Amino acid sequence: MHDVYQFLCRIRIAALASLFFALSFVAPHAQAQEPHWPSKPVRVVVGFEPGGTADTLARSVSNLLSKELNQTFIVENRPGAGANIATNLVVNSAPDGYTLIFNTVGPVAVNPTLYKNLPYDTLTDLVPIVQVANVPNVLVVPASLPLKNVEEFIAHLKANPGKLNYGSTGVGTAGHLTAVMLLGRSGAQATHIPYNSSNVITDLVAGRIQFMLATIPSVIQLVRNGKLRALAVTSEKRSRSLPDIPTLADSGYPGFQAGAWLGFFAPKGTPTEVVQKLNRSVNLVLPQLEAQMLAAGAEPVGGSPEDFKTFVHSEFVKWKAIVQESGASAH
């Protein structure tokens, strides 16, 4: 009996030793696989040229995140194809939190309907992290046009059916589709002139085109110095950047709401812990940018990943209907 007892003890000791050895190997290995995020520089991809609203805001937020998280956030511009190139790049990146995209309404909510056969699904292949800003559109006309409000503007369009031109930064952009919404609601007609550069603003000021649904940051200084006249904003409430300008909803078009927005996304499969940490960090630094953003015409938002996910889905549904109604398409 004593020999049996010693034999069982030896088996138990050997088993414990084996378990300890296994744990001593697995724990460091697991730690190596799940490093403290961020333990190296984070790449923030922007699908637009340097100097625009998306690029400028991405850099401002990334600079603050670098300080908050004690790690470098590097903004990388990958323009082209309505930001589809940048979006596809991030969708196919490793879901480890080190490649993010600072994306907007167009690539996420408009392009899936506008472009046929995109190689990804923005609702399932991107993880919404946090909405950073709303950027309402504003209906602007050259100062040379003697139009003071939306009522006069629509009357002018109807008196000249199809003779007036409006500009946008491209077919299927928020500015183009918001104009389609307004024309559809009002029953007026106008001719769309798509541009591929900032020349659209130059031509608007010169009167070569007669109106535009522009993002507030792109025209706010021209409105302030009197070269353009703002007639209405497209947001649900008046813009804090242009508080004296009524909304289209207040100007005879109840429920009218459209515009751009910006926020951070990550590839599908990015760890929840990373998403939550980045969300908390953006919400912490965003108040530091409030004055700067409002001066430029953007309004800070923040909120949870769940809030942003719900919002993105609603925007997808809304813009899908608008794109289909407009008949716009891109390849």
On the 0 to 100 scale, the average pLDDT is 89
Total of DSSP H or I helical runs spanning 4+ residues: 12
The CATH first-level class of the largest domain comes to: Alpha Beta
Q: Provide the low-confidence segments as ranges.
A: 15-34
* Secondary-structure element pattern, one letter each: HEHEHEHHEHEHEHEHEEHHEH
- Distance between the terminal alpha carbons, to the nearest Å? 84 Å
> How is the biggest beta sheet arranged?
10 strands, mixed
Offer a concise description of the structure.
With 331 residues, the protein is α/β, with parallel strands linked by helices. Helices cover 47% and strands 19% of the residues.
Provide tags for this entry.
single chain; 331 residues; alpha/beta; D-Maltodextrin-Binding Protein, domain 2; 2 domains; 10-stranded mixed beta sheet; 12 helices; globular
Describe the protein.
The protein is of the alpha/beta class. The protein has two domains: 42-135 and 259-326, D-Maltodextrin-Binding Protein, domain 2; 136-251, Periplasmic binding protein-like II (D-Maltodextrin-Binding Protein, domain 2, 3-Layer(aba) Sandwich), CATH 3.40.190.10. It has helices spanning 2-33, 53-69, 84-91, 105-114, 122-125, 150-159, 174-186, 199-206, 216-224, 272-285, 290-296, 305-326; strands at residues 42-46, 73-77, 99-104, 126-142, 165-168, 191-194, 211-215, 228-233, 259-267, 299-300. Strands 1, 2, 3, 4, 5, 6, 7, 8, 9 and 10 form a ten-stranded mixed sheet that branches. Helix 7 (174-186) links the parallel strand 5 and strand 6 (191-194). Helix 4 (105-114) crosses helix 12 (305-326). It is globular.
